[in-house]
What does this fold into?
Amino acid sequence: MRRMRILATAAGVAGVIAVVVVSYLLLELSQTKADLQDTQEALVQSNVDLQASMEAHDVLAADVTTVTGDLADVKADRDRLRDEAHELSEENRTLTHEKSVLTQEHDHLKDTLEQLTATHQQLTTRHLTLQADHAELNDQHSLLQQSIGTVQALESQAGSLRTEIARLEALHKPLILRRTAEIGALCTGSMEPKLTCLDTVTYLLDFDPADIVPGTMISFESRACWPNDPSHSYTGHRVMNIRVTGGIYYYWPKGDANSKADGCWVPHTAVRGYIIEVHKNTRPENAPLRNGVQAAKRAYEAAWNAVPAANNALEIARNAFKAAERALAVARSEYGTALSRSISLCRITTLCGYAVGEVNKARERMDRAFADLEAATDRYRQALDHAEQAVSRYERARDYYDCWNRNVNDSEYPGHIPYRC
It folds into this structure.
């Protein structure tokens, strides 16, 4: 019985223990379930975070791919820019050579300009001489105006004087032998249109130097003005001014068709005579020679007048070329600076695109400057060619005119043209 009670008690205790164990297990199960729930929520959150990380990774991978492409493009641009820099270096050497050639051409033109400047100085000296002569003429004119007042008083004596002069001339004529010569005029055209080579003139040979007055046409030895001329050469020009020094009369001659005087004082001892009569159109056979000389003279004057305009255009083109060279140098410097900055900034991803854009803009400016330089170079070459052509035309016209002048000097008879020009 007691054993049964013990067994019953043991069974009760076992039941209690079982209940306690079950309760504990249920509590543990409930806690485990709660932990599993938390773990599941944590896994869900982790999955969301992982998904976000994967998306961020994809974006980063895309950025890396873009940056890699940009770096490849930058490298390609850098290689291309290096090639272009090499080409520009070759072009610069070519331009340097061309500049050397143009410098030589400039020196040649500078020498020509110096010669023209010397000629201009000579002309200036002659101009000053003419001004002095003009002042002297003004003084003479003033003296003549002052003497007008005495003319009326002298008129009262003129009648008796004319009678006496006529009487003296009648007595004097049989004692004077007047020597004259009829001579043809040369076809130089210097006395056109008053006197041409179609005419002949009568010179008074035994003249009194005091009889020659301003406006008289004289024939004098050409060597009196131009020492290199042949000894038998004579020039017929009009007297513009007269002076007397040491009892010798000197005459300042000029051709009517010439723009300037002969530039020399001719002594009366070098004068063959002065014109007293002109016989028009007595040598029509000289017409071809005259026409050739006149045409050559017009071509020579036109070519001479074209040279200064061509030189002026050349100077303008040269200045434009130098300005284009300076602009290209500035553009190249800006391009080099932009290229250096782009290489540094492309290491920073966010600034690489901006740097490449600046390089491209600098490259465009350099291309425009180079195109402007090429255009300026072409214009300069054209101006140089034009100037050379003008000088060449002038030289040909001068030689052509010289040839016709040789024809004039060496013509042996009316109508004779000894040379082909």
